[in-house]
Design brief:
Strand content: 5-15%
Structural class: mainly alpha
Order of helices and strands: HHHHHEEHHHHEH
Shape: globular
Helix content: 40-55%
Number of domains: 1
Largest sheet: 3 strands, antiparallel
Length: about 260
Amino acid sequence: MNQVVRNNFLQQTTTIASVPALAAAIRTLNVQPPLMASAFHAADPLVQMYQISPGAGEAEAAAYVVSGIGERLRRLGDAYGEWDAFDAPAYFDLSVTQTAQLLRVSERVSTVHITFFADLLLPAFQQTVAAWMHEFQPVYQRLAEEPVLAADFFQRIQPTLVGRWQHLNRVVTSARTILAADIGFLATNSAQEERERWRRWWQTAPVGRIDAALLPPLSTVPTLTLSFTLPLPAYRQPNRLRRLRRHRERQVAQRRRRKSEW
């Protein structure tokens, strides 16, 4: 992997915020690791509606939480214009730090696009990223210079990550199955959009000596990432008066042309 590709990867992945992002990171293990989200700790706990407990019921709990987030995203279409400047932490009941990790809000010319990285809420996701970042990735980078690490890497570290990765995929896939008939989820499901964001990393060969279970086709990588696009209130649209003026001018010009043709 050349330096340009490495730099591009780093610019795009300051945070691993979804399962596709993690899959892309695993494929490119010879770059420096992106930062894991640090917003979810005891000093800054998430409110109850976002809390998911690990264990046997994680998929069901995830489905319940994601359903609530999807419904809140849908309601935002009516609520967004109530703010002169949208207060995302207040609306989503998150701290400023949590909002920075979980949400991306992009105001465009006439629309607002909001992405909620729900994978970050999953204990299975947090544990898998931690295993990759703190042990798998740094040990892999040292294998060439320290061959003595190979036995531990291939007998313990890599199988551990494979197990966590497979468990994560089961949790996300099961949650998506539960949500298959949920209107809020269907209206905000952004799995394909999130996968497309990482497609470029599947256009080159992955690094060597990685278990095939950690290198799935992009189309099979599940995610609970949500997104919603809503109209930007007219009074907030940049250059709105200029665009209206140009529209009127075009209409006048068209009427004049039609008259001249008569």
